[in-house]
TrEMBL record:
Keyword NAD assigned: no
Protein's name in the database: Transforming growth factor beta receptor 2 ectodomain domain-containing protein
Keyword Cell cycle: no
Domain Transforming growth factor beta receptor 2 ectodomain positions: 34-136, 155-257
Keyword vocabulary terms for this entry: Signal
Annotated organism of origin: Culter alburnus
Species lineage: Eukaryota, Metazoa, Chordata, Craniata, Vertebrata
Amino acid sequence: MERFGSVGFGPVLLVCLMSGASALPHTANPHSQCKSCDPRPAACNSYQCISNCSVSKVCPNPQDVCIAVWWRQAGVVTVETRCHDPTQPLRGVMLEDYSSSDCVLTIRHVSGHNLRLCACTGRDCNERMLLNKPSEDSELVIMNASKNKPFRLPQLCKFCDFESTECNATGVCESSCNIKSICEDPEEVCVSAWRRSEGKTLIETVCHNPALKFHGQYLTDYSNTRCEMKKVKGMEDFYICSCNAEECNDRLFFPGDSPGDEQKKEPLLPVQVCLKRPEK
């Protein structure tokens, strides 16, 4: 110590050697900026959802990341966005991946409910939520499906439970449902039901797993791209259809209808025929 002290810069050099990197200038991590809104309906289309949050906030702590929590409430896709400390549990779940700039939703079963959670690092990165992470060779990892069992993307369906309708179970009807939802399970398809009960005509639109019964019936036509209504046996005023395409349960095709019947048919005009008595 005394020998170093005899040199003008010795004590300073000693401090540097003992403290190592701590003596180097420290640059603080910038605070993240995230979308921050209470639960609200989200706009979902295909593989992604937009939070519809117009509020951006600078996170209070430098370690905070952006998060989003996605769930379905009464058929409506609802999303909560905010800052979160990844060292703390989110809805009772510890975050595993929050370094990506993409907010990729993963399904978690929490307190008897299915939630989708995502976390990301980047300016307002929780504004858009993905069901699958984009790959280099294609827009979605899903496109790089395995040969044995392709990964299936959850379907997007109309989801309004029961609503009143003017449809009389003939021709082509539209559901009038203005809510669309990404199905929770990739195995689920789009389903609609038409029924008349106590003088009221109702249409139900939901997601449903065809491996399970729907109103006591197994779905048999769920691979179609259009929803073709079939009468439920033993029930005069009850029809069910299923299909596997985006929002395909919005238009309902009842028995007797064909693709060409979607165009309006001109009404047949009555023709009066006059028979002339032959002359004798």
